[in-house]
Amino acid sequence: MTDQTRSPLSRRSFLRTGAVAGGAAAATTLAAPAVLAQAPLVVKMQTSWPASDIWMDMARQYTERVEKMSGGRIQVDLLPAGAVVSAFQVLDAVNDGVLDVAHSVSAYWYGKNKAASLFGTGPVFGGNPTTMLSWFYQGGGRELYRELTQDMMGLNVVGLLGFPMPAQPFGWFTNPISGAADVAGLKYRTVGLAADLMQSMGMSVAQLPGGEIVPAMERGVIDAFEFNNPSSDMRFGAQDVAQNYYLGSYHQASEAFEFLFNRDFLDDLDDDLRAIMEYGVEAASTANTAFALDNYSADLQKLVDGGVNVQQTPNDILATQLDAWSEMITQLETDPFIKKVLDSQREWVERVTYYEILNSPDYRLAYEHFFPGKLPS
Questions:
Q1: Residue-wise pLDDT tens digits, 6-17
Q2: Is 259 helix (H, G, I), strand (E, B) or coil?
Q3: pTM, full prediction
Q4: At 317, is the secondary structure helix, strand, or coil?
Q5: Is residue 169 in a domain?
Q6: Consecutive H or E run containing 162
């Protein structure tokens, strides 16, 4: 941080008094107006991703938009996981003011409160990622998130969600799988409530950040894993430690990025700069979606061309996941707040997805019509 951001004088006061002082000086000192240009506000932002991960590029799409929309009044110091704190510690760092902003996912702090996982890696009830992100902004999810983080946990943070992630693959396996019996006993990496889900299916689960997955496979700590998408997986070398890749799963089918802001940091901003920081999430969400679809699809084709066995997750596993979710929901709902969140999600999905399903033509039928034989059998 610069001295400016560490000063006891608030950001809001600094920006306002700086502008007044600059105007007064300009009126009396005409010889050197360039010297009076206001220095940008430097924002310290860390992600939960390795520097090489595609999600760093997507976080940068947010910072670039914030800087441009602010006209240079904001400059974001974007850092990868480990630069200040570890991938799983960004919530604490934002709460404590060590970081102004973090770019992560809520499942990474599910160990503090299981309800965190409902804002990204909970049961989907049939809703897709866009359905669930819409619930956050239109169906009461944002207020429930605020209740969890600020009222119940006493955290000094404001959180927003952005980018409806494509459903995550079931993951990478050293041997082909055809049903639930093939995964029982495997040591598997995932995070959030998905860890509980997989354990109920007989798997032994380790929760690891992305940068630790391949080394864990090489050491035999795990023998199967998921992270999120073909681009991230390929960049950290998933194809070097496993060759069977299964797409489409219910374990994390509605996740979004979590943008964590220190509450004091936001409150100190001028109204227009705060709006830029917050609405920048929505702008980046659109950019992230286009960027992801381009890169994820291109990198999946590279994996196929490189000899990876790419298949859809077997229906037997999907059905077992749904049964496991049903059992888990009964247990989770003994917590009154979790039940309140799940009731809200169910009500939203029942109405919205009813419309979405009835209104959606069979896109697979159209794809197979124009590209026959392309999809795996």
A1: 333 455 444 444
A2: strand
A3: 0.88
A4: helix
A5: no
A6: strand 157-164
